[in-house]
Specification:
- By secondary structure, this protein is an all-alpha fold.
- It has one domain.
- The protein is elongated and about 55 Å long.
- The N and C termini lie far apart (38 Å).
- This is LysR family transcriptional regulator.
- GO terms for molecular function: DNA-binding transcription factor activity; sequence-specific DNA binding.
- Pfam families: LysR_substrate.
- Belongs to the LysR transcriptional regulatory family.
Length: 82
């Protein structure tokens, strides 16, 4: 997928590459804090624009409603409701 200025966007499946690029001073990384936590703790990265970070939204799960819900899905839903 082309990005700004012809750059390729690494995509969601490659957030580690985005973090690595930020550690190497290539630019800023907009990633989940948990993924960058180790680099933040070791002072390789620093959170910026803290007033602009969106609040976490509640987790939602969409699934088909039917009478015979598969057992693994039911167990997963019960786990999330915890």
């Amino acid at each position: 997928m082309p990005g700004v200025g012809g750059c390729q966007h690494p995509g969601l499946g490659n957030l580690r590459a985005v973090i690595r690029a930020a550690v190497l001073d290539v630019g800023c990384a907009y990633v989940y804090e948990a993924l960058a936590q180790q680099d933040i703790e070791q002072k390789r990265l620093q959170p910026i624009l803290l007033n602009w970070i969106p609040r976490a939204e509640p987790f939602c799960l969409y699934y088909p409603s039917r009478r015979q819900m598969p057992v693994p899905l039911r167990v997963f839903i019960d786990f999330l409701k915890g």
